[in-house]
Amino acid sequence: MIVENILDLIGNTPMVRARVAGIGTSGTLMGVSKRLREYNPDIQVVAVQPEPGTAIQGLKNLQTQYVPAIWRRESVDEVYTASLTDAEESARLLALQEGIFVGPSSGAIFHVSRKKAEEVQRGVMVIMAPHGGEKYLSTTLCDPALCVEAVRKYGIRCSYKDGKPVTRAPERTSNRQT
What we know:
Elements: H1 2-10, E1 16-22, H2 27-39, E2 44-50, E3 78-82, H3 84-98, H4 104-119, E4 124-127, H5 144-154, E5 160-161, E6 164-165
Parallel strand pairs: 1-2, 1-4, 2-3
Antiparallel strand pairs: 5-6
Helix pairs in contact: 3-4, 3-5
């Protein structure tokens, strides 16, 4: 059903060029990728895992952790790694620029997707965000200083001015004559 919903959204299956997904239990990665390839066998499947020794909740590195029985390396074209720093920065970018609040595992997938988008000249990339950001409110993901840093780095327009949140609208000066 997931694949049919994706295809309903994009309409033209040959436009799908790549599928980027995280390696967790690997069920969604394997299942959705297999089904998409039934519609277009040329779809490139890209898997995302954390760097060895890096903990990104929801993702596992198959070199250092348990390999799920459903995992099939031959079904994946490329495997990328992501650092926690890149994962969190990408999650911040999604939240601040697009209004999509995701967790670090989704940030890692988005980070790799941005890299892959530079290689894909035309078409659609299918990306699913497995985790929302609500569990990470008290972590470095939501650190105000790091959010301001992302705002500055990416030139995002938002409710920050000079590194501080804007708490009220600036007072207007009246040009009205009495």
